[in-house]
Amino acid sequence: MKGGIRIMKEKLGAINALYPTPTTLVGATVGGKPNFITIAHIGIMTHSYISLGMGKSHYSNGGIKENKTFSVCLPSENLVVETDYCGIMTGKNTDKAVLFDVFYGELKTAPMIQQCPVCMECRLYQIIDFPTTDIFIGEIVQTYAEESVLSGKNVNISKLKPLLFDMASKKYWSLGGEVANCWNIGKQFKAEKI
Amino acid sequence: MKGGIRIMKEKLGAINALYPTPTTLVGATVGGKPNFITIAHIGIMTHSYISLGMGKSHYSNGGIKENKTFSVCLPSENLVVETDYCGIMTGKNTDKAVLFDVFYGELKTAPMIQQCPVCMECRLYQIIDFPTTDIFIGEIVQTYAEESVLSGKNVNISKLKPLLFDMASKKYWSLGGEVANCWNIGKQFKAEKI
Predict the structure, then answer these.
(1) Which of A74, A190, B97, B182 is within CB 3.0–4.6 Å of A118 for a Cys-Cys bond?
(2) What is the ipTM of this complex?
(3) Among B85, B76, B79, which Cα is nearest to B37's?
(4) What is the model's pTM?
């Protein structure tokens, strides 16, 4: 039943290969103004809690700690230049919010981006303190989406065209096609009674 | 400079839209035997720390807590049937390790899968206790990869062909093509001096 042949592997060292991840634009209020930073070190914890890994040198971290809110906005492929720009420039000396139409939801200090088809506003739940990185864990409070990326009440990922990030190639990647249905295609094996 | 027009968004409720994520096969030793479970609620915290969100009812959780180790193996698209099977069946009454050639690395209780082109072995660092979910945070200790998915010492994601997961569609998706270079294409804006 085992597929393939036994192939020796190389040791790469302690390399993080858990890619690709969705590239996001994280919104925070810093010094009373909206700021956005590009973050792809994200995580899903539960159906309503997500995490961000953000280097402590970033300008946004202070604002998230102060207001205990942030947003996670999902840019489509067509926003790749703006998204990359927000990862290159720092809010310390650049007003990145001028690139976008900014809106706010239930939380009044989690700026979101109209040009991003999907935005989640989050309440800060916990911070995990790594030596050079703050892990911000947020509870999703509300999710906003353009009708153009919806199928019924669900986000249609093929319409969203998320911008995927890979560290090894230092590239953004697009989403490909459907492979199979989850919790379904594996039943083939089940039926074979291995 | 702002692209696009202002489009009203719909409120979806507190929906987690942070997809797609890489689908992984997580290895653990449970009751002295290797077990594998399909997990796509993953996170990147830093360059060497990753997280898994695993419902408390899963069989593997006890083994991870006991041994304080686990592996994160990355299946390619061609392993979709086996991967989905490991998400449907429980180790409580099914020996899922028989599907694979299992190997071990520096940690002796983090079983890995030869058929997965990339495997990371992890030491448990911290558990975040949600009501029905354990968040296992692991430090990557060693990463193993087949030469067939490497370009030099880097994992080449287009050769890996990761199996991406999306909750809304309940489908596995493939990786698409390259969109642009990170920390680079955004310089277009920078040059424009907005």
Answers:
(1) A74
(2) 0.95
(3) B85
(4) 0.95
